[in-house]
Design goal:
421 residues; mainly alpha; Arc Repressor Mutant, subunit A; 18 helices; 2 domains; single chain; elongated; 76% helix; two-stranded antiparallel ribbon; ABC transporter involved in vitamin B12 uptake, BtuC
Length: 421
């Protein structure tokens, strides 16, 4: 398997995938994922026209034609968005379909002459990494270096343009020039990438690595590195599978590998993955149920002036909570010594009473803040306070107390219990 042809194809796909994915990460973050797909489809007429008008066997000439067509398509989308009433997705669809249809028409005309296949034009449509030559490899290596070095040089400008373009303009950065450089790099990345996966699948190579990387980190620098690593890994897998199995195309396998990486990332990433978010949601739900129960018992003690015990049936009737879920909550609170079970029901321990007092305090402080600072009516604030009491941190609590001047009563004239009470 480690023959010169395999090494050549592997290096080519690694360079194409890694360099394209780094530029694609900015497109993904800017919410312009479909623009890359439109540009990829719009490159076809530029490639075919370059073959018709010039030296069709020179990869640099074909890439130049693709670059020109991509720039025209990109600015065509911007023109339609700014000068007409068309929405972004409509403008993208219009440019994509028009350019791609024109390209297919030109490609059909060239292939009737028998020259299109000889020039390798079909690989721009569906990708054909196995056809990468040594001269192609030199060109791709040079373009990959240009892409990566340009991203490194313009990193700060791309970062501000992606997240806060108005701020970039306000501090004097040449936003138009930065946008133009980014457009050129995007078109160049697409032009380079279609050599391996083709026009049809290029959007996956441009965007999927970034989507997978975003699930693992919030750092832009690390996201760029992960995008390149994921794309290179997919390129390695696709090349190995293509070389191992007869008549297996490399491009689709690269995209399938990317899809698998993205699926695993979106599912298993430690913070942003679906499983982690599901686990946090269940944890927050349990936390809310626990605090609501402690608040209920503390409120009952506050009214009665003594320790109060409640049966699970009484709690279900008051909180309208499912009995099975309540039993799970009660077991958890007992395990942490926040509740004690007595013959007449469940009652707060000293530790549980302290926690219940805290929840009641946050609820009443927030109700007071809503009425005094936001002007809300006292009879409309309970639902909002029910939500906020579970997420107010000690730092926010201290700021609210300071803002309200250490209040003693909430809007309903109930006392606000502090720690010393």
């Amino acid at each position: 398997m480690l023959d010169p042809i395999f090494i050549k194809v592997l290096l080519g796909t690694l360079l194409l995938a890694a360099s394209s994915s780094v530029v694609g990460a900015f497109s993904f973050l800017k919410g312009e994922s479909l623009v890359g797909d439109a540009i990829a489809h719009a490159l076809l007429p530029g490639v075919v026209l370059a073959f018709i008008l010039g030296d069709g066997r020179n990869p640099l000439f074909l890439i130049f034609g693709a670059l020109v067509a991509g720039l025209i398509a990109h600015y065509g989308i911007s023109f339609l968005e700014q000068r007409t009433k068309l929405k972004g997705d409509t403008a993208i669809s219009l440019v994509l379909s028009t350019f791609f249809g024109f390209g297919i028409m030109l490609l059909s005309a060239v292939q009737r002459t028998g020259l299109g296949q000889q020039a390798g034009l079909e690989r721009f449509l569906l990708g054909k990494a196995a056809a990468i030559t040594l001269s192609d490899l030199y060109v791709f290596a040079a373009l990959a270096v240009v892409l990566l070095v340009s991203v490194a040089v313009f990193f700060k400008g791309f970062q501000l343009m992606t997240f806060n373009e108005d701020f970039a303009a306000a501090i004097g950065l040449p936003v138009q020039a930065i946008r133009f450089v980014f457009t050129i790099l995007t078109v160049l990345a697409v032009t380079v990438g279609i050599q391996s996966v083709g026009i049809v699948l290029m959007a996956a190579l441009l965007i999927t690595p970034a989507a997978a990387a975003r699930a693992w980190t919030s750092s832009l620098r690390l996201m760029l590195v992960l995008s390149a690593v994921f794309a290179a890994t997919a390129a390695l897998v696709g090349t190995v599978v293509s070389a191992s199995l007869p008549k297996m195309p490399t491009g689709p396998w690269i995209v399938l590998a990317l899809g698998g990486i993205a699926f695993i990332s979106l599912l298993f990433a430690p913070e942003k993955g679906w499983i982690a978010r599901r686990k946090r949601a269940k944890g927050n739900q349990l936390k809310t149920q626990r605090e609501n129960l402690l608040k209920l018992l503390y409120g009952a003690e506050e009214r009665e002036g003594e320790t109060v015990a409640m049966t699970s049936e009484t709690i279900v009737a008051m909180r309208r909570q499912h009995l099975d879920g309540l039993r799970k909550t009660l077991r958890s609170l007992k395990k942490e010594y926040l509740l004690v079970e007595r013959p007449d029901g469940f009652a707060l321990t000293d530790k549980g009473r302290t926690e219940g007092r805290r929840v009641v305090r946050l609820h009443r402080l927030w109700e007071l803040y809503l009425t005094e600072r936001l002007g809300m009516a006292a009879d409309h604030i309970h639902p909002q306070a029910e939500t906020m009491e579970h997420i107010i941190t000690p730092e926010i609590e201290a700021l609210i107390v300071k803002e309200l001047g250490n209040p003693e009563l909430d809007p309903h004239q109930s006392p606000i219990p502090y720690e010393e009470d």
